[in-house]
Amino acid sequence: MTDAAPTLDADTQDGCLVLHGRWTLEHAGAISTLLRGAPEQIRNIDVTRVERIDSVGVLQLMRFAQRRELAFDGFRFRDDHRALVAAIEDVNDDRPSKKKEYGFAAALARLGYAVVDNGREILTLISFLGENLVKLMRLIKEPSRFRMTPTVHHMEQVGLDAVPLVVLLSFLVGAVIAFLGSTILAEFGAQIFVVELVSIAFLREFGVLLTAIILAGRTASAFTAQIGAMVSREEVDAIRTLGLDPIDLLVLPRIIALMVMLPLLTFLAMMAGLAGGLTVGVFSLDIPPQGYLARFQDTFELRHMIVGLVKAPIFALLIGLIGCLEGLQVEGTAQSVGERTTSSVVQSIALVIILDAIAAIWFMEVGW
């Protein structure tokens, strides 16, 4: 029996299949042939008379049980084979995932899943907004809950540390807008109107939009990574265990700091953009500084600056909520932290641009 090939005896009356020989890799082809030819009346298998069995034999029996819809737990094995059978059962479901399907139906299914997932994210964000507004109002009645030290720390991190980047980029964008505008306006001999182009563009749109996009990429990702790391290290659970509210401790200081600093950064971005336009006007368009500033003073309207500054706290609230919410949704792994950080940046930038477009249309319709 040392080289015995696999065989089986079928008892159709009892519905039992008795196996003999070696059910190993070297006999894989014979094993498949034997099991395919087994009678349909079989309801149980006796493996106790098998001389030797390996993973191939066990897997073949498992698949046979699945095909015939038999209970694999009812198969009888020798005691010295049970450890191998248990190990194969544990890893039987760990198969590689199916390849990505292509085609219209698969694309439609992925679109449906994306719509449902985005709908859930929007509802979660609205719920998170309501929770934060309630707890923000609670600070008025219970000012002892306000965390001054972390709020000031985040104001420095969000605002002061971002000033060089915001000012530099706004200055360069203002210069680019002046260059592009002068190229077109020079054909009509109206280069002086570059002053209005740069001032209105930056006071109404580009100042707040550039600042919000920069902070969406810089600050929202930082909030998500910071809170996500705390979630993965179970620090947020420890905060709840101590009877403290993670919203009061982690979220509100960040949101308040962002809502205070974003309008200030927006103002600096406006001034930097105007300075960029002035630089191009003086050194490239041969507009004297006095003439540029006089034209700016004559055409300046306060409503343009108000429109830009009014949107800043709304964008700040949106960026802070998304950054903190994504951080709290981290599932405890490094991969989850990276995915949520990327998601917070994408969501923040996309929603900022969408809200800015809606606000621009609304202000235009009301005559502002």
How many strand units?
A: 4
Structural class: mainly alpha
| Mean pLDDT level | 87
- Helix-strand sequence: EEHEEHHHHHHHHHHH
Dominant shape? elongated
Cα end-to-end separation: 96 Å
User: From the alpha-carbon coordinates, what is the Rg to the nearest angstrom?
Assistant: 34 Å
List the domain count as a whole number.
2
* Helix share, percent: over 70%
- Characterize the biggest β-sheet: 4 strands, mixed
Strand % is: 5-15%
Helix segment count?
A: 12
Q: Poorly predicted ranges (pLDDT <50, ≥5 residues)?
A: none
Summarize the structure in words.
The chain has 368 residues and is mainly α. The protein folds into 2 domains: 7-91, Transcription Regulator spoIIAA (2-Layer Sandwich), CATH 3.30.750.24; 143-365, no CATH class. Helix content is 70%, strand content 5%. The chain contains 12 helices and 4 strands. Strands 1, 2, 3 and 4 form a 4-stranded mixed beta sheet that branches. Helix 1 links the parallel strand 2 and strand 3. Helix 1 packs parallel to helix 2 (55-68) and helix 7 (194-232) packs parallel to helix 11 (302-328).
Q: Which features does this protein show?
A:
mainly alpha; elongated; Transcription Regulator spoIIAA; 368 residues
Give the arrangement of secondary structure elements.
Elements: E1 7-11, E2 16-23, H1 28-36, E3 44-46, E4 50-53, H2 55-68, H3 82-91, H4 104-141, H5 148-158, H6 163-185, H7 194-232, H8 235-241, H9 246-283, H10 289-299, H11 302-328, H12 334-365
Helix pairs in contact: 1-2, 5-9, 6-7, 6-9, 7-9, 7-11, 7-12, 9-11, 11-12
